[in-house]
Amino acid sequence: MNSWLKNGLLAGVVAVLAACGSPESEDTREVVVYTSRGDHLVKPVFDAYTAETGVQVRYITDNDAALLTRLEAEGSNSPADLLITVDAGNLWQAAERGLLQSVDNDTLERNVPAHLRDPQGRWYGLSVRARTIVYSTERVSPDELSTYEALADEQWRDRLCLRTSKKVYNQSLVATMIERLGEPEAERVVRGWIDNLATDVFANDNAVMEAIAAGQCDVGIINTYYFGRMLRDKPEMPIKLFWANQGAGESGMHVNISGAGITAHAPRRDEAEALLVWMTQEQSQKLLADGNMEFPVNPEVAPAEAVAAWGSFRADDLNVEVAGRRQAEAVKLMDRAGYR
Amino acid sequence: MASLALSRPRLLRRPDVPVLAVLALAVMVLMPILVLALSWLGDESAVWRHLADTVLADLVFNTILLVVGVTVGVLVLGISLAWMVSALDFPGRGFFDWALFLPLAVPAYVIAFVSLDLLDYAGPVQRTLRDLIPAFAGGSVRRPWLVIVTLSLVFYPYVYMLARTAFMAQGRALMEQARILGLGPYAAFWRVALPMARPAIAAGLALALMETLADFGAVAVFNYDTFTTAIYKSWYGLFNRNAAAQLASLLLVFVLLVLALERFGRGRARFEQGGRQVHRVRPRGIAPWLLTLFAGTVFFLAFALPVGRLIYWVADSAWRDLDARYVGLIWRTLLLGLGAAFVTVMLALLLGYVRRTRRHRLLHIAIRGATSGYALPGSVLAVGIVLSFAAIDRLLTQYFGTGQVLMGGLLALQMAYVVRFLAVAFGPVETAFERVRPKLIDAARTLGASPAETVRRVYLPLLTPGVLTALLLVLIDVMKEMPATLLLRPFGWDTLSVRIYEMTAEGEWARAALPSLSLVLAGLLPVYLLMRRTRVY
User: Fold this and answer.
1) What integer is the mean pLDDT of B95-121?
2) Residue ranges of the ABC transmembrane type-1 domain (chain B) (predicted)?
């Protein structure tokens, strides 16, 4: 026992020492990224960049709120040059807290449509994510569908499935509705949704689609790339996408972005700008969007074949920053309406 | 000697290294917590009013329901299983002895996701029932009972581990004495074995409840709103970190109450050192098989089934992500786990030793403070750590021009693990220290043993099971730890739990099966080895 304990102690000491030895830094050009996109999505992009330019990309993945806190706490000490996150709300928040700096770059302004970037140039969209209606092909005909708002109508009583209001995608959607319709009308719609729920709200978009396929409900609201992934694995699922709010005078489909901004204290500002610009160009746009079945932000770049097959749509042209500006209002509205 | 009261002036006059170390440790753990407490300087009454008007009542009710349910669940499972493997004999006992600890190696929210995926309306169980029985309507299982059952299955190993060590330490002689005094086997359990194991059971329960209160991932899978939901709603949804920190510090107060109850639960019960347990009672008839069935059911539901599901996903599609980098992921996961477990348990031993040999009110408060980090939700604590470490870095930079020293270094990550898991190590270590009765030490000294010899021949053998238990718990907890690892790891130090996070954050649950399964496999060997070593006593 004692000798075993001794060996254990020895192993422990070795582990601690090994864990404390820091990796050596190499003397090459590099750029440091904080990102809330997973390794499996960003690594192919960064690898391509390194292959093309020789610049090493070092990165840390974490969730948005944590990365913002870290950037804020590190202040001028931060090693980060570029912040890449999902959801315009997070980018708006980062800009609002002074964590990002303005970039004035013609290529960026040409490649990224005006409503998908910060008016002051502190962040730019990289890919577009659309949130729309999904329906059962067995129990719903597409001409019954029209808008997000119409899902609050009596005809969908006990037929609607929703994801939790705690997910930022729904907060952004409702934030946009508040901007478009005003708060009382948006609240009426959300209350209508809640009355129409077929079952408790779900924790994720996949569960919404599975519930529709299994017959628990008939319509739902999801991000299109979840649909794309689901159908890639199970092509026989009896569900389809419907482009919401396309009619004349209607708002167009709700879109959000993944995007990036250069940090306020970026030690390698020029490297960061070069990477940012590179990511909005054709080849990298394909890598960024296709890896997760999203839409490229650059209108010149075509989406992946499977994504393009869903057809084209008119997107809401409100600047996506509204998702951040009205997010807190949206959360409070959904709490009041009993949307868990 | 042990009862000598140190007065404050003396404490300051003659530096006492272990005592100073404990105070330093307490400061280190309390620093991130105090940073959070600073949030009360801000006025967040608007957020509070909103929460109180809308969701707060439900959240508090849900939280209490969960705590009560999980208390019952982990006590029933943990105590009964621990008693079975330590005092009874049944087919498969040797296997269940260590295997029943395994559910702890799977992150709670992975088990939650798997159970929901199997049982919900669209899942295979209800689908099959609908196919077989046309009249079966089915429905949502995202209900409190399933949350309670799931969390009980995930967290019972804390109670099981500590109770098992305690039951085994009681030894055969004790039960024989109870029987000789005329107690039947059941009465002997209820009136002798169980009360004597109370300190250990209370310590295990406290760990399980702290995990439950701090949990966000598993309850989020069920969309079951607890107090942590309010914390995250304020932070992520309302972008109000201050309000989140206020809510989190309230949660901490609640947990300190739970801990005080634990003290109360321990009462005056003390371990008695017993002989080695060699003989176990084998019940008659089919009873042993019923025991096997019970242990097997728990093991199946809490471990085999979820892991089986993970294997299915890996075989189906997730294996495509497997590449050479997994060697590094597994290596770093184990390295961080072993390193942190070693450091944390050493510090817990220091706390236990000082608590044992020094009597000073300030010290005991410091020890209490040093073991409160576990009660906060991991990501909230991680934020407290980042804020305080980054502040130190800024000061260092300002006066010495050092740049970042702590942030982004492994030292900071190790410190974060200590802050978070010191309580986990301290529970088993402290209960082990209680087995070392003062009279044993006195006897050893009277017999002429040097202090070193006393440590080697009295302390070590008696402390070993508790120390190994502590090592194991911290190792497993660190390996699956997520928020602090994500926030503080140096560049390139990705671990398996980082991969799990990245996949689940993108909704890729099936792909998360590969890192999850790797995590379980990486934990298997250390669990098996350590559990074998805790068995004898």
Assistant:
1) 91
2) 60-260, 330-530
* Residue B261 in domain: no
Helix (H, G, I), strand (E, B) or coil at B466: helix
Nearest chain B residue to A215 by CA distance is: B122
Cβ atoms within 10 Å of B119's Cβ, excluding its own: 17
Question: Which residue is closest to A199 within chain B, CA to CA?
Answer: B140
Express each pLDDT in B335-389 by its tens digit. 999 999 999 999 999 999 888 888 788 888 888 888 877 877 888 888 888 889 8
Whether the CB-CB separation of A221 and A131 falls below 8 Å is answered with yes
* Identity of the residue in A11, A20, A79 whose CB atom sits nearest the CB atom of B338: A11
CB-CB neighbors (< 8 A) of B487 in chain A? 62, 66, 69-70
Q: Are residues A294 and A241 in the same domain?
A: no
A262 three-class SS: strand
Q: Residue B278: is its pLDDT beyond 60?
A: no
> Do A61 and B411 lie within an 8 Å CB cutoff?
no
Closest chain B residue to A79 measured between Cα atoms? B404
ipTM over 0.90: no
Q: Give residue-wise pLDDT tens across range A38-76.
A: 999 999 999 999 999 999 999 999 999 999 999 999 999
Residue B492 pLDDT greater than 80, yes or no = yes
Residue of B nearest to A78 (CA): B404
Cβ pair B486:A66 closer than 8 A: yes
Question: In A182-308, which residue ranges form alpha helices assigned H by DSSP?
Answer: 183-196, 205-214, 224-233, 269-279, 282-290, 305-308
Interface test with A, best of B118, B342, B387 (most A CBs within 10 A): B342
The domain in which residue A153 lies consists of 130-254+324-336
Residue A77 contacts residue B404 (beta carbons within 8 Å):
yes
DSSP, collapsed to helix, strand or coil, labels residue B322 as coil
CB contact under 8 A, A74 and B489: no
Q: Which residues of B140-176 are buried (b: 16+ CB within 10 A; e: fewer)?
A: bbbeeebbbbbbbbbbbbbbbbbbbbbbbbbbbebbe
Q: Among residues B354, B363, B478, B353, which one has the least CA distance to residue B415?
A: B478
What HEC string does B149-175 produce? HHHHHHHHHHHHHHHHHHHHHHHHHHH
Helix (H, G, I), strand (E, B) or coil at B142: coil
CATH number at residue B441: 1.10.3720.10
Q: How far apart are CA B169 and CA A260, in angstroms?
A: 58
* Phi, psi at A133, each rounded to 5°: -90, 140
Per-residue pLDDT of B195-205, as tens digits, reads 888 889 998 99
The answer to whether position A15 is within a domain reads no
CA distance linking residue B29 with residue B376, whole number of Å? 12
- How many Cβ pairs closer than 8 A exist between chain A and B? 191
Which one-letter amino acid corresponds to residue A291? G
Which helix (H) or strand (E) element contains residue A295?
A: strand A295-296
The residue with tokens 């019972």 is B156
Q: Which domain holds residue B424?
A: 12-42+318-537
CB atoms B414 and A12 under 8 Å: no
Cβ-based contacts of B51 with chain A (< 8 Å) = 335
- Separation CA B398–CA A82 (nearest Å): 24
Answer yes or no: do A166 and B120 touch at CB < 8 A. Answer: no
Q: Are residues A206 and A85 in the same domain?
A: no
Q: How many domains does chain A have?
A: 2
Choose from A43, A77, A216 for mutation: most chain B CBs within 10 A: A77
Residues of chain A with Cβ-Cβ distance to B331 below 8 Å are none
Give CA–CA dist A260/A118, Å, rounded. Answer: 10
- pTM (2 decimals)? 0.90
